[in-house]
């Protein structure tokens, strides 16, 4: 273990509640949280990791060009001319994985029909925003704010969209302010005070029966089980992959048995998260007023135990006892 909890808590921000509201901010449901979550700026997390990893093991600006197997090892060739010889390759190169595309071209990403904007905003909001993860629903749109410091918020906005649409970068803030113009007035301030706004179409990889390794090449994270970001579990599950795989290799070594156990322990949980996230994305975008009322009704009447069970299934690590 890297023992990073103290640094993460110190540099992150505690979330006490999660709320689903209508577009004006009227609470539909306060979701139960057993233990306060910690939200942290990705760059802060990377800096913490960087401090705790030997810099000799970090190589930047290394774009993989190709590779070949040479008896008991692999030769990795990079675009800058560098070559690395290794017995094992851990491919964690994202949903557009070059390695997966070559080894398992049948595994294709799936478009959700939705696009997402994300940003960091430095703005002073009302007290309710400062301790809550709030997701606003309305007009077949979503907007969420999550505090990451006293006056900084990570936010995202989602709408249904054709694949591949692009924004006018000169007017993106104005365009989003108009799109969410009928939402809670604080949302416009969040958008206006954002430094950079990124847009991505939302994809996942449909749960499949392909192995997570080929020879001594093993996959990790989005490269083999990408999920839509609706449950905020993409990076989390990649971290779980890494920890599980490292724990297995430390006991079994680099062997086929290690990679097969890794798949056996991780597959059920991560594919369930992929399915849940996909369903949540569809459920949270009702296409007419009747479906919108039905969605609100369902959120209001479901017992806390239902949400706690879902939360527990995401944070459960009991499978590690089998290692």
From TrEMBL:
Coiled coil: none annotated. It holds the Pfam family FAD_binding_3. It comes from the Bacteria. The keyword Phosphoprotein does not apply. Gene3D superfamilies: FAD/NAD(P)-binding domain. The keyword Oxidoreductase applies. Keywords: Monooxygenase, Oxidoreductase. GO terms for molecular function: FAD binding; monooxygenase activity. Residues 62-252 form the FAD-binding domain. Belongs to the 3-hydroxybenzoate 6-hydroxylase family. This is FAD dependent oxidoreductase.
